[in-house]
């Protein structure tokens, strides 16, 4: 009975030790490696989009030549102060489309304000002082190449073609020396126009850009009405023609984009996403089996017999008879 109990206790102890060792080993195992979660690349940045623009600037205009049919007949004709135009203001607006990160288009219209016309000629017997005003309406279709962006600054170049309506008004020809002269009614001409652009754009935010630009523009010819003498006589149709009017313009422009296009995006990469915390794994250890001590009732008491002192009797071997010679007796 005692041997069976000892065996059961030994088996339970060994089981407990094995389970505990397994639990300890599980607890000591390294955590699983971080989980790399693949994220799909972000959608391609859509740089395309419509925008509105507005411009204000200054003009700096030149004219190649001034022509009139009567110049050919004036003796010793020459210019003391060639025909020129003062600088003036321009105001424009337009709508454009950004095709991608480097290519955009727009259509612009602008009014180029009145500027003074001046000139002084000389000929044998007198001179003429010329005055008047010039203004234009200009419509252009433009294409631009944005050359990259650094610190929100984008240099660009471009070109445009369109039409220009050039108006000459208030023309006067005063011959002070001879007390004569003449005037002309307003005249206008519509010409092919073209332009070259260069400048810098500063992106305040994805929807608003400020730009500072230079533009060279060719406006074509300007023409006056027929020149009539102050006394009302006019023997020939002789308007003044101003050939090849050009301008070097400086503009401050603003662009407003529709929507959040072209916003800077982080480069694509696979981001490390830490795994969600796992609940602690509970290691269940089987409890040692409970053993109840089995109480064995002692055997019924039996009266033991009274102890009696054993008696011992000396056993003497039986003496055998002696048949030898008689022992010698010492004589005194």
Short description:
This protein has one helix and twelve strands.
The succession of helices and strands, N to C, reads HEEEEEEEEEEEE
Globally, the shape reads rod-shaped
Task: Count the DSSP helices.
Answer: 1
* Strand coverage percent: over 45%
Low-confidence runs:
262-270
Beta strands, count: 12
Architecture of the domain at 49-257 in CATH? Beta Barrel
Give the biggest sheet. 8 strands, antiparallel, barrel
What is the terminal separation in angstroms?
A: 82 Å
Q: Helical residue percent?
A: under 10%
- Spatial ordering of strands, largest sheet: 1-4-5-6-7-9-10-12
On the 0-100 scale, what is the average pLDDT? Answer: 81
Provide the structure class: mainly beta
The CATH class of the domain at 49-257 is Mainly Beta
In the CATH hierarchy, the third-tier topology of the domain at 49-257 is known as: Porin
Work out the radius of gyration: 61 Å
Please describe the topology of this protein.
Layout: H1 2-28, E1 49-59, E2 61-67, E3 78-85, E4 88-98, E5 103-123, E6 126-146, E7 153-175, E8 180-184, E9 187-205, E10 208-223, E11 227-229, E12 241-257
Antiparallel strand pairs: 1-4, 1-12, 2-12, 3-5, 4-5, 5-6, 6-7, 7-8, 7-9, 8-11, 9-10, 10-12
């Amino acid at each position: 009975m005692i041997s069976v109990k000892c065996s059961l206790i030994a088996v339970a102890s060994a089981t407990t030790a094995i389970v505990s060792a397994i639990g300890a080993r599980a607890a000591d195992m390294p955590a699983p490696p971080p989980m790399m979660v693949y994220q799909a690349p972000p959608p391609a940045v859509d740089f395309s989009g419509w925008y509105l623009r507005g411009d204000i600037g200054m003009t700096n205009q030149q004219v190649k030549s001034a022509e009139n049919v009567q110049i050919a007949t004036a003796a010793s004709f020459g210019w003391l102060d060639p025909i020129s135009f003062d600088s003036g203001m321009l105001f424009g607006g337009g709508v454009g489309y950004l095709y991608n990160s480097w290519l955009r288009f727009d259509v612009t219209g602008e009014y180029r304000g009145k500027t003074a016309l001046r000139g002084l000629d000389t000929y044998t017997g007198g001179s003429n002082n010329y005055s008047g005003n010039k203004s234009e309406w200009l419509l252009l279709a433009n294409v631009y190449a944005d050359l990259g962006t650094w610190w929100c600054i984008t240099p660009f170049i471009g070109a445009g073609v369109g039409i220009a309506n050039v108006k000459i008004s208030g023309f006067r020809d005063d011959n002070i020396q001879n007390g004569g002269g003449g005037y002309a009614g307003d005249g206008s001409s519509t010409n092919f126009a073209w332009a070259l652009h260069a400048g810098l754009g500063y992106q305040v935010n994805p929807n608003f850009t400020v730009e500072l630009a230079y533009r060279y523009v060719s406006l074509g010819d300007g023409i006056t009405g027929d020149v009539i003498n102050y006394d009302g006589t006019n023997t020939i149709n002789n308007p003044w023609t101003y050939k090849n009017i050009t301008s070097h313009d400086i503009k401050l422009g603003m662009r407003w984009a529709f929507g959040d296009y072209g916003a800077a995006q982080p480069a694509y990469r696979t981001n490390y996403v830490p795994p969600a915390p796992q609940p602690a794994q509970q290691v269940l250890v089987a409890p040692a089996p409970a053993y109840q001590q089995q109480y064995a009732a002692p055997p019924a008491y039996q009266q033991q017999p009274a102890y009696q002192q054993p008696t011992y009797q000396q056993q003497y071997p039986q003496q055998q008879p002696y048949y030898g010679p008689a022992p010698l007796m010492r004589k005194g």
